[in-house]
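Feature request, filed as a ticket because there's no other form

It would be nice if the structure record came with a short human-readable summary line next to the tokens. Right now we just get the raw output. Example of a typical job, pasted below so the devs can see what we mean:
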Amino acid sequence: MNKFLYPFFICCTALLLGGCAKYLDEKPDNLLTSDLIWQKRSTTESYLNQVYSRVILQPDDYTTLGGSDETSCSLPNVDIRKMVTGNWSVQSNYWNYWPTYYAGIRQSIVFDQNIDKVPSAELSDALKQQYKSEALFLRGWFYWRLLRQYGPFVLLRGTLGLDENYSQYTRAPFDSCVAEINRLMDRAAAGLPAAWASTSNYGRATKGACWTVKAQLALLAASPLWNGNPMFAGFKNHDGTALAPLAYDAAKWKVAADAAKAVIDLDTYKLYRNTDDGDGNFDPLVSYRNVFVSNWNKEIIFSSNLAGHEWIWGMEVRCAPGPAGFNMQCATQNVVDAFYMRNGRTIDDPGSGYTEQGLVQQDDPAQWGTAKDGVNRGYVKGNSNMYAGREARFYASVMYNGKPAVAAPTTDDRNYFSSTQNIDGRGRTEFYYSGKSGAPVTNRPDMTGYLVQKYVSPASNIRNSQVSYRPYIHMRYAEILLDYIEALNEYDPANPDILKYLNAIWSRAGLPAFETVYPGSVGNQEAMRKVILRERQIELCFEGDRYFTLVRRLMMNDPKQLAIYRMNVNANDNNQGFGFTDFYNRNLFETRYWVNKMYLFPISQTEMDNAKGLVQNPGW
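Raw output as currently delivered:
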């Protein structure tokens, strides 16, 4: 499912225009009457597909392109660069997802109201109930996404009429929004399987997807942004109704932990390992990488499966170095420094073995990726020592100076990325000044010296714009494990499950058991909170989680998150190439702007003008 061919009633373009009032009373179709839609199985299923199409893919939005300290966009005038410099207002309409989500909500309601009209000869009662459950999930999904980005939303039980008094529709309090999403997910889960037996159903909602939304929702509700946040004391509707809970409730952490544990106890999902696909030996780099570039695996909880969709090419070309790629979606030094050494220690730990002096004298003896790809995907001779001995997830996630290109399957393809003096069949990426992917050559003076590599497949050939299929993952099992231990640590820091599930993630990453590295942190709530948040930063890097974790934890105003560092990309190497060690000096790229109103997106002025019952988010 979610394999949308954008059905013949691609209608609904009008639904994306105007305010809440407008797109909730538009007709759902241009080419068919409503009665005809509900007479055929094919048109009914096409309508449900249209609802699924409102599930937004976010590979290059504010969460992944530079809204947090893990990434930056090398293009100077794009919206995300304006946003992080404070050039942002209610008229900006940056990532204005509000109308799209309400279009999906409206369509899910229309679907629920009409599906029983379909003749039984066309659609069985069992399928009708299944499709109703999927539509309920989608409605809850859209509400959940609204809540996460904008805060309290307008809660709708039906479509609105043309003569409706729209000013009567106001934002529901946060706790009421949470209750509505939970109600929808419970109803949906009751009619959905834990997992689909047929591959043709991959991408459809499941019981596990419903429960995962509930777990993520509970974690948001327990976190400081919405759990007794004094910044929201004056956040009220026009009638004085408070929209945010002002009293801290420690019990919400237990609710969040219990919700995540329910997903774990479904026993449906697992952390993917390359041996699941028949490989003879465990490889931590391939195991982590292939979560994101394989056709399907049991770590995926909810995804959009869009064969031939442009997001895959767009993701790979943004993340590819020159001359084949755009050199655009940059990782920062901040996230590079977060990754562990492969002995499990942080780079600032004196026992880690980390050094920034000199160059590597031999290829990585671990040989990660060699058995699968025929190419050593770890460090190689001539790399800076700052990239030697790092954990497997680092090499799967980050492209750095001297690292061989990934989306280049043949020797000739790899040599395409190399200057004449560097041609050796490996295609080492040249981020230094005079290199093929250097700042002046690619006209990217705002590059960082790193690119996001997490979603790049070795089966692709970006030189020829050929990319391999993979689903777009919205939710996966590793995040549930991290949700669980984060919440558990807040109310029961001695619980052995914290170590159990942290070690499960570390084991897949090829790291030693945590207690053998930092035994003094085990059971220490404050220390483990830092460990867990760092683990989210690493395991879930470039998936959008870093932005929302910093937001719900009220950590976005920390100067450490606002100071963005990079390599010395604009220093002229005078044709020294990979031997130019001054490239590896850290530079402060930018200090980002932050004021606390930015914890919530503003509702666009157009929406405010069309629905007078709305109140704007605080500070906007």
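Something like this underneath would help us a lot:
The chain has 24 helices and eight strands.
The first helix runs from residue 20 to 23.
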